[in-house]
Amino acid sequence: MYTFHRTRKVLGISLSLILINLAAIMERADENLLPSVYKEVSEAFNAGPSDLGYLTFIRNFVQGLSSPLAGVLVINYDRPAVLTIGILCWAFSTAAVGASQHFLHVGMWRAVNGFGLAIVIPALQSFIADSYKDGVRGAGFGLLSLVGTMGGIGGGVLATIMAGHQFWGVPGWRCAFILMATLSVLIAFLVLVFVVDPRKKASTFHGTGENFDRDELVEKGNTSVSSVWLESWMATKAVIKVPTFQIIVLQGIVGSLPWTAMVFFTMWFELIGFDHSSTAALLSLFAIGCAVGSFLGGVVADRISQAYPHSGRVMCAQFSAFMGIPFSWFLLTAIPQSVSNYYTYAVTLVLMGLTISWNATAANGPMFAEVVPAKHRTMIYAFDRAFEGSFSSFAAPLVGILSEKMFGYDSKAIDPVMGSPREALALSRGLLSMMAVPFGLCCLFYTPLYKIFKRDRENARLASFKEATSKDEEMF
């Protein structure tokens, strides 16, 4: 009988993690949809780069402001239910964007999309943090990023290819949004029915310590509104005052700017003259490089942190951030912007993706899990997304503004078929401005963690031990 229950537990964890990774795939695919069809949206609504940048800004800004809500919800409800709510939010808004006939409506639904993502992403991250131990947590985050990026590839390629066709008289980019929304609803149903919160599993097989905290957090029987907000406020204060959190958020604010600016890569390659298929292939190679790199970074950091437990992850993060500087310069400036350089772009994008994508999996995600008690993990991921998302959301419109006002981008001069080398050059200069410098600052801002992380890690372990001891005494 014991063997049967043990086997069922292992299978249950595997199924839950599979569905969580599927949710991550759909989340990243949804994020990549609009940037993949920027050119078509620009033509449909007569919008320039700054207008398109505002669409990304609206979604990211709302996502950042709404992220703390995920921490509040997870304190009082099972994460599968929270994830389902968020997935349905983004599914509905994605379908609405595909059906919108006015640019203002697109902006409104992008805001709703940001709200859904704000609920989902921190809950996914804390789910992974609770499902893996300290020594392999980097690999866990790396796997989540790997499969999520594959979803981004699928969403981007699907939208880019479909954008060049019409289906039953409907533009292909609109059909891509409707299709993605339908698949997201299916994933939401599967998550709600089959995923089990690891906090419940932990409390079933263990009765004390950290697992008791997790079980206690999802009990809802006697929870009043005042106690909900009190618990949320206590968790917020506990998270914000951690110096490691402050440092990682500071680097993340500038470090996420280049990634937000990269939403213009699709438009940039098409302006150079690449067709939809070639553009999709190039961006897929970059995404594959990022996917493998994020997993590789997590594994490498796990290994190095065994030898250097307090500095190994920081070293990996600084290496990755620094590599963004030469690669940004080479991609956007050194390579002549011509379709004849397809293979040069391809190799550069793969190598760039392999090296610049380590930070979240090698350092940020695992380090967050080690500097606060388990019950505050969703809150720390939520506030990280709140600060980083809110500030990085300015990158996309800034790229558009710089390209138009400083480097002479003119949306009226674009050939819908052949693109425009002049406008491609202007856009690349705007991209470089929002990539090279932020990557350098990101690398620099990690430095204080060499001293601070060790102290915060030890404080969190001591606090967890004391709390577990006091709960054991109360039980007996």
From TrEMBL:
Cell location: Membrane
PROSITE patterns, per database record: MFS
Domain Major facilitator superfamily (MFS) profile: from-to ranges: 16-451
Region forming the signal peptide: 1-23
Topological category with respect to the lipid bilayer: Multi-pass membrane protein
GO cellular component, one term: membrane
Keywords of this entry: Membrane, Signal, Transmembrane, Transmembrane helix, Transport
Cited InterPro entries: MFS, MFS_dom, MFS_spinster-like, MFS_trans_sf
Ranges that cross the membrane: 81-99, 111-129, 141-164, 176-196, 247-269, 281-302, 314-336, 342-361, 382-402, 426-447
Family the UniProt entry places it in: Belongs to the major facilitator superfamily. Spinster (TC 2.A.1.49) family.
PANTHER family in alphabetical order: MAJOR FACILITATOR SUPERFAMILY PROTEIN, SPINSTER
Name listed for the protein in its UniProt record: Major facilitator superfamily (MFS) profile domain-containing protein
Organism encoding this protein: Citrus x changshan-huyou
